[in-house]
Amino acid sequence: MNEKTQKTLVDFLSPNLAAAGYDSLQQIPDDKSLIDLGLIDSISLISMLVQMEKDSGIKINYGQCDPELMVTIRGLEKLFSPAA
């Protein structure tokens, strides 16, 4: 995941950190659903994925993608890494 894509992730998650009980992004479990943790909702997820595609230059084929990859930090790192 490039720096610009990471910034997009931070921008989308940061507003809800305190409400979800986190002080920083580093505290978020990388294998837990960001939706289940209360950090984003389904509409925010779509907006975030679209922006991350633009920032990374990587186009994701969502029809052939494991949905779990789209909702965890670990999965997003895999999706938006140049080798993915």
User: What's the alpha carbon Rg, rounded to whole Å?
Assistant: 12 Å
Distinct helical segment count: 3
Helix-strand topology string: HHH
Indicate the CATH architecture.
Answer: Orthogonal Bundle
**Are there runs of 5+ residues with pLDDT below 50, and where?**
none
Main sheet, how many strands, which sense, barrel?
none
- CATH fold field value: Non-ribosomal Peptide Synthetase Peptidyl Carrier Protein, Chain A
Query: Gap between N and C termini, in Å?
Result: 10 Å
Rounded mean pLDDT is 89
Structural class determined from secondary elements: mainly alpha
List keywords for this structure.
84 residues; mainly alpha; Non-ribosomal Peptide Synthetase Peptidyl Carrier Protein, Chain A
Kindly describe this structure.
It is a single chain. This protein is an all-alpha fold. The protein has a single domain, classed as Non-ribosomal Peptide Synthetase Peptidyl Carrier Protein, Chain A (Orthogonal Bundle). The chain has three helices and no strands. Helix 1 packs antiparallel against helix 2. The longest helix is centred in the middle third of the chain and has 15 residues. The radius of gyration is 12 Å and the shape is globular.
